[in-house]
Write a structure and sequence with these properties.
By secondary structure, the protein is α+β, with helices and mostly antiparallel strands. It is built from 4 helices and 16 strands. The protein has helices at residues 2-14, 31-38, 130-139, 179-183; strands at residues 26-29, 51-55, 60-64, 69-78, 81-85, 91-97, 100-103, 112-114, 142-148, 155-158, 164-165, 172-175, 190-195, 198-207, 210-218, 228-239.
Length: 240
């Protein structure tokens, strides 16, 4: 009986593949970028990895920057280190350091640190929105008094999920993080306000609790890629 019990315990022990303290399964976001943005630094993240989605059971890992996603095979090198092999000679190395996941520096990127998303940010559905939702929650979400512009004296509301109210007919907003959307701002911070079947690009300037939203004037020719420069200020908002 004792021998059978010992064998049973060994079999049970063999089912435990990944101790909780070294489990990297799930979603990780580039929290340092969000923290820096919340302190007033610009959203200059061209090509920067923003979010990892890791499936240890299937041995897969996906990484997303501001405009594209890559997927590779997840291979464990050591108790706290993994390699992501994309099959084209290109790999990434991930290391778990306590509650933080580090993507080691390589030829195509510098070192980056990732954290689990805050509990208030939903991770269901389309996982590539988790970083964006966390950024919106830290940087935009909440009530803003309309100090100047249409609706002066009332309140505009931004949500982490990209909803907005109080700014004319707009009911959605999107911060421009990378790619064409980013480059067309000519170095200015831009966002897109959408509603009633239309979408418009705006330039915004955030200083502390105040944010100005300016019309984006296209200086490019009709057959050229749009290039926006600030026009008249439409709204001046103050965070509550």
């Amino acid at each position: 009986m004792r021998a059978l019990l010992t064998i049973g315990l060994l079999l049970l022990g063999g089912c435990v593949h990944t101790p909780p303290e070294t489990d990297i399964d799930g979603i990780w976001i580039n929290q340092p970028i969000i923290d820096a943005t919340s302190l007033g630094q610009p959203l200059n993240i061209h090509g920067t990895p923003l979010e990892w989605h890791i499936d240890t059971r299937m041995g897969k890992a996906q990484v997303r920057n501001g405009f594209e996603m890559a997927e590779g095979q997840l291979l464990r090198k050591a108790a706290d280190t993994w390699t992501v092999d994309y099959g084209d000679g290109h790999t990434d190395e991930l290391r778990l350091d306590g509650k933080q996941l580090t993507q080691e520096a390589s030829q195509h990127t510098s070192q980056h640190a990732f954290n689990r998303p805050p509990e208030m940010v939903k991770t269901g559905g389309n996982w590539v929105n988790t970083f964006v939702n966390a950024l919106n929650a830290a940087y935009m979400a909440g009530e803003w008094s309309i100090v100047e512009g249409p609706g002066k004296g009332t309140t505009a509301m931004f949500t982490a999920g990209g909803r907005v109210s109080g700014l004319g007919k707009a009911d959605r907003y999107t911060l421009c993080l990378d790619g064409d959307c980013r480059s067309q701002g000519s170095g200015n911070e831009t966002l897109v306000l959408s509603g009633d079947g239309a979408s418009d690009t705006w330039i915004f300037v955030r200083k502390g609790k105040r944010m100005g939203i300016f019309q984006a004037l296209n200086t490019a020719q009709a057959d050229e890629v749009p290039q926006f420069t600030p026009g008249p200020r439409q709204w001046l908002l103050e965070k509550q």
